[in-house]
């Protein structure tokens, strides 16, 4: 049997880190990706879709958005949907218009059977849940929870302890909360898996995103596969600048080399690092504007430092050269000389000096 596992879609997110027009488009894409996941499940012959929490970003998502998602679920009647609330959403908590193919979990353990597969889950992660979980070893048991993982036996509210689930006849622990694909071993029989979020919403969610496809006929360790499925990938790329007198063209060549092969549909964040000379023609805002023409969204962050070699100014007739020579004659400590030179150059450029 095939089961599709997704979580942390956060439909209805404000996406305030993006410009308003881009945020609006991305909010639509979060819904679109959920719709594509539903279609994928049906077309691939999956019997069920498990949503392991945070389908919506808050409990106050517009009613029309909830209705649209509900209608999408209804439009795939051959697939059973199992919806667990997370720490963000509770859209169906008191809803009376839940479609016939959507099943929800309660505060205590709920059990659903599809053939020899049991899907067990509960909305509350608490210390008492380990002792009350009852699973038949003859079934293929999928346990659905939403929370932070732990390899400790310590009981903590909201934290899922792998050791305390060992020996409980769990074949697959289907989890939500972590926004990256991640797996772990519970015991010789069971494995845990976080599918991660299917779409990155900020640059703290970089890399391939998607869902997990479960095949209950395969042995432990081989019964899950990650399927990349995001419309856009968020990428954080570091560009190191050196101490040479780089022109703006030189810097742009470095940037283009670092972005080779990345599609324009993605979102990129460039972090410039290293030390640059005072004569480096660095213009981060210009580069950002150029990248914004090539990618869905681009931003740049300047983390470079300034490298000053006073020796290069020995024969410089300018005010800058005179200043560097004076500092070299009066400051003997190399570190102090560098700091003084940086401060002096900043003052010459009219920048605030702390």
Describe this structure in words.
The protein has 354 residues and is α/β, with parallel strands linked by helices. It has two domains: 2-228, Purple Acid Phosphatase, chain A, domain 2; 234-348, no CATH class. 26% of the residues lie in helices and 26% in strands. α7 (319-330) runs antiparallel to α8 (334-348). It starts with a strand and ends in a 6-residue tail after the last helix.
Task: Provide the fold topology.
Elements: E1 2-6, H1 20-43, E2 48-52, H2 63-74, E3 80-84, E4 102-104, E5 110-114, E6 117-121, H3 129-132, E7 140-146, E8 148-150, E9 159-161, H4 162-165, E10 172-176, E11 182-185, E12 191-194, E13 210-215, E14 224-228, E15 234-241, H5 248-258, E16 267-276, H6 284-292, E17 297-302, E18 305-306, H7 319-330, H8 334-348
Give a summary of the structure in a few sentences:
With 354 residues, this protein is α/β, with parallel strands linked by helices. The chain is 26% helix and 26% strand. The chain contains eight helices and 18 strands.
Shape: elongated
Radius of gyration: 27 Å
Oligomer: single chain
Number of helical stretches of at least 4 residues: 8
Terminal residue distance = 65 Å
């Amino acid at each position: 049997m095939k089961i599709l596992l997704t979580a942390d879609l956060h439909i209805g997110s404000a996406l305030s880190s993006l410009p308003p027009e881009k945020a609006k488009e991305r909010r639509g894409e979060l819904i679109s990706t959920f719709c594509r996941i539903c279609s994928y499940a049906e077309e691939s012959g999956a019997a069920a879709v498990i949503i392991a929490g945070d389908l919506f970003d808050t409990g106050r998502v517009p009613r029309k958005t909830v209705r649209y998602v509900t209608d999408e679920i209804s439009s795939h009647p051959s697939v059973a949907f199992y919806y667990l609330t997370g720490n963000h959403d509770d859209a169906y908590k008191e809803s009376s218009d839940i479609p016939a193919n959507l099943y929800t979990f309660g505060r205590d353990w709920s059990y659903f059977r599809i053939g020899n597969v049991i899907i067990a889950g509960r909305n509350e992660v608490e210390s008492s849940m380990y002792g009350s979980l009852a699973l038949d070893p003859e079934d293929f048991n999928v346990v659905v929870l939403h929370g932070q993982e732990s390899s400790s036996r310590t009981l903590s509210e909201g934290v899922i302890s792998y050791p305390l689930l060992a020996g409980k006849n769990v074949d697959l622990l289907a989890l939500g909360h972590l926004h990256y694909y991640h797996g772990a071993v519970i015991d010789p029989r069971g494995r845990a898996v976080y599918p991660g979020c299917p779409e990155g919403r900020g640059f703290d969610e970089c890399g391939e995103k998607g869902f997990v496809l479960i095949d209950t006929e395969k042995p432990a360790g081989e019964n899950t596969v990650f399927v990349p499925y995001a419309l856009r990938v968020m990428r954080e790329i570091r560009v190191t600048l050196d101490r040479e007198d780089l022109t703006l063209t030189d810097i742009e060549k470095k940037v283009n080399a670092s972005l080779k092969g990345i599609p324009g549909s993605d979102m990129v964040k460039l972090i410039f690092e290293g030390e640059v000379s005072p004569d480096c023609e660095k213009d981060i805002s210009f580069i950002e504007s150029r990248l914004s023409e090539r990618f869905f969204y681009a931003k740049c962050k300047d983390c470079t430092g300034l490298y000053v070699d006073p020796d290069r100014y020995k024969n410089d007739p300018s005010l800058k050269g005179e200043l560097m020579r004076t500092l070299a004659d009066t400051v003997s400590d190399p570190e102090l000389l560098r700091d003084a030179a940086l401060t002096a150059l900043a003052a010459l450029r009219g920048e605030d000096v702390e």
